[in-house]
Amino acid sequence: GDSVTQMEGPVTLSEEAFLTINCTYTATGYPSLFWYVQYPGEGLQLLLKATKADDKGSNKGFEATYRKETTSFHLEKGSVQVSDSAVYFCALSDGAGGGNKLTFGTGTQLKVEL
Amino acid sequence: DTAVSQTPKYLVTQMGNDKSIKCEQNLGHDTMYWYKQDSKKFLKIMFSYNNKELIINETVPNRFSPKSPDKAHLNLHINSLELGDSAVYFCASSPRDTYYGYTFGSGTRLTVV
Q1: How many CB pairs under 8 A join A and B?
Q2: Could B43 and A51 be called an inter-chain contact, meaning their C-beta atoms sit closer than 8 Å?
Q3: Cα dist. B63→A35, B40, B47, B59, B60 in Å?
Q4: pLDDT tens, position by position, B8-20
Q5: What is the tens place of the pLDDT at every residue in A39-57?
């Protein structure tokens, strides 16, 4: 079945540091890939998405590129801020008979300190 | 103007009780979902409804029963609550094509004591 593997956290960075959160996936079809962010006490918000190989999703300074050859969708940001502290989830949707189900990774907690 | 709203936000109840969580979306989406988030933040789908029809029913105890009176509402009823049911339950909705991603509610924190 479909699965998503994320690097374990927590990841602790200083403000303005470079961020990478690794994500790899296994899917039978050609999935769409997503990053969601969950701030403390809130629901998940869609951060960015990509629907086919080599697509780059970007939003609020975050980027991720759909790499079919390595089945990866790593999240990057050039300069993190304290306000980026949250839990980040990588997810895939395999529409081929998947019933619109999103399969999530385990989440990676990011803490950004001054 | 809330897109996906859940009630209640917090629910504390005793073992053995029956409780319901309500969800409503005003986005005109066709599909609604219930996800369970455990204490380690892991998210697992429980149910999915498309235009009032059940399309995903993962391995969930039959004490959990979803009900969708119309495509804008998806409620979750839980019978005979157990300690292990303590979690955050998220409702979400999406258009027919999940290219657009889900819109999540803010969650219901259920604590069974």
Answers
A1: 63
A2: no
A3: 32, 23, 13, 12, 8
A4: 999 999 999 999 9
A5: 988 899 999 999 989 999 9
